[in-house]
Amino acid sequence: MDRNKVQALICLLDDPSEEVYSTVEGELLKEEVDIVPDLEKAWESTGDAVYQRRLENLIHTLQFKDLKARMRNWLSVSEDDLLYGVYLVARYQYPELRYEDIDKKVNAIRKDVWLELNDHLTALEKVRIINHILFDVHEFGRNNTNFMAPQNNFISDVLDSRKGNPVSLSVLYSVIAQRSGVPVYGVNLPKNYVMAYLDEGGDLATVNQGEEISVLFYINAINKGAVLGRKEIEYFVKQQKLEPSDSYYLPCSNKDTVQRLLNNLVYSYESNKQNEKVEEIKELLSLFGDISS
Q1: pTM value?
Q2: Which residues form the Protein SirB1 N-terminal domain (predicted)?
Q3: Of 124, 240, 246, 261, which is most buried by a Cβ count within 10 Å?
Q4: How many CB atoms lie within 10 A of CB 35?
């Protein structure tokens, strides 16, 4: 980045000529997100509404371009890190959000769980401990006040408000469980999202490789970690008139989970008539089609 060149271009953003502005904007959009602090400083130093709006548009466009690049990289290189994937979803709303801050908050809860666990506990006993820490001690739960709010899909908001939806609460639960050595993974069940507690030795890699895997039971995060059997999932599928599928009973990929969160955001923004946000989230979703499952 040539800082002098960037500063000179920023100064030209308030030119009344649309032709000049268009040329300057095009040059600045070739830069990386690193120039955002310079744009923000320029915004703070002026009271010109037109100049500020141009700066705001540039900032958002650069930050969104950066988010798309990060998401594309996650999909192709590091899809095994679920927390990082959902962190990227939150960066859409909070571009300055740091992964380290999210990771630290999650690890603090994980430590509370870890202190109560030991190798002599049964699978059900381990789940009861995680349930107690998450839902009783930290008081996480469903956002009954505004279930369709976009914030329910942003892990940063969920950690701060202690409220979420089936996907976001399950993500938090499964990440904490896995970091504590408990094999709990998300299941992409339509019209709900639950988790599977895998038999000893099972993990997501086993599922992805198509190997046979045993699920001990299912967990419903939206109902304070209630334990479900396969028959209850089968009843739910039948009740909802869903076409039977093995995928309703097995862990899904982290890519599927992040895609589900983004789809939730589309519904949220559509219901709020925030059409620009809808189109941007659809742009992010289009990246998932570029990468094979």
Answers
A1: 0.90
A2: 101-263
A3: 261
A4: 20
